[in-house]
Amino acid sequence: MERMLMMAEQGGHYCSKKTDNLCDDWCRQGSGRFTRIRCILRGLDVKTYIFLFMVIPMFILGIYLHGQKISYFLRPLWEKPPKPFHEIPHYYDENVTMENLCRLHGWGVREYPRRVFDAVLFSNEVDILMVRWKELYPYITQFVLLESNSTFTGLPKPLVFAANRDQFKFVEPRLTYGTIAGPFKKGQNPFVEEAYQRVALDQLLRIGGVTDDDLLIMSDVDEIPSRHTINLLRWCDDIPQVLHLQLKNYLYSFEFLVDNNSWRASVHRYQTGKTRYAHYRQTDDRLADAGWHCSFCFRHIREFTFKMKAYSHNDRVRFSHYLNPKRIQSVICKGDDLFNMLPEEYTFKEIIGKMGPVPHSYSAVHLPSYLLENAEKYKFLLPGNCIRESG
Coil, strand, or helix at residue 373? Predict the structure, then answer.
């Protein structure tokens, strides 16, 4: 007690284990931010300090860096898988007559084939467009292509197809080409601009001369129906009004087969006033093994960075180093994800099964014929050639 009185006379404070009330009084009477902080922290032990100043900041940092991965991994908890497709078996052999092929599918055969329109929105995929049009050329009545001078994200872009149009002289007599001015509105929802361009493509199709019961292929440039699939559908009668196509799903080249579940490509028997160009699920019917989807299949590194910033999912570029050319090249050769994301699946089994790099495939069987006939020019799309051009 004498020691406490002595310290009080000298302007100091003393707190023993038996004088908690006196200490509380001192904390209440003390002034200044640091005095109050000392009072708050004076009762904390070492473990609590570690938790406050190490564990919590690391947890926050982890959420910042990997929050997207966590949300994708937990997706099965709040989102149910979509309704399964009604899968239509696909029969084909070059030595089987069209009459027999149609009958195998449960369809009749026509006296003459339908006309076929192939309509796409174009950004910068010159190489894959060439592979697509060469594959489909024998059976397409009219190629319809719409190009904008801005990306879906509102960034200005050159008219890439217009600059490379000479490469596509072989389709010129059958080409309906249109351009559309972009909004150039930074921060606009990219899906709004994408939908706007698809509406404009409807108008371009009418200019191209599409009529009732013509076949209309709705797919992105990199979603390529096989030649024999389109020939089958133009010759067979009683095919579904709308039919999705199951495509083999590749990443970066035909070396990395992700799965066989690409489904957004579709073929429609055109109906005036009803058919609208779209890229979402429009029916439950899907024709099996009907082509290829080669996503991010570019020749140059700059094309990768452009698409990463330009397409509708550009929000996946969460950090600037994702656009580093050396990183992109490394990711391509490993079969990793450009955006460092987990697979977009609906069950834990599928998510875990697809985690990590896409396995290498060394099969170049049943690929577009033009690709194999020009293997040297398009070697970057074939197995064993992951190095991209830097220009």
Answer: helix
> pTM (2 decimals)?
0.82
Q: How far apart are CA 161 and CA 207, in angstroms?
A: 19
User: How many contiguous H segments (helices) and E segments (strands) does the chain have?
Assistant: 15, 14
Q: Which two tokens stand for residue 11?
A: 């302007």
Q: Which residues contact 53 (CB under 8 A, 6 or more apart)?
A: none
Tokens of 333: 């050769």
**Dist. CA 327–CA 342, nearest whole Å:** 18
Answer yes or no: are the C-beta atoms of 248 and 262 closer than 8 Å. Answer: yes
Q: Tokens standing for 28?
A: 């209440």
Interval 131-158: pLDDT, tens: 999 999 999 999 999 999 988 878 888 9
What type of residue sits at position 216?
Answer: L
For the record, the structure tokens of 314 come out as: 């550009």
Which stretches of 2-137 are assigned E, i.e. beta strand? Answer: 86-88, 108-109, 116-122
CA distance linking residue 246 with residue 265, whole number of Å = 8
Tell me the C-alpha distance between 252 and 330, whole Å. Answer: 12
d(CA 120, CA 139): 16
Q: In the chain, what is the straight-line distance between the N-terminal and C-terminal CA atoms, in Å? A: 83
* 3-state secondary structure string across 137-201: HHHCCEEEEEEECECCCCCECCCHHHHCHHHHHHHHHHEEEEEECCCCCCCCCHHHHHHHHHHHH
- What Å distances lie between residue 57 and 41, 53, 60, 63, 83, CA to CA? 18, 6, 5, 10, 42
CB-based contact 122:221 (threshold 8 Å)? yes
The pLDDT tens digits for 350-374 are 889 888 999 999 999 999 999 999 9
pLDDT bucket at 106, cuts 50 / 70 / 90: very high
What are the pLDDT digits (tens) for 67-83?
666 776 788 888 888 89
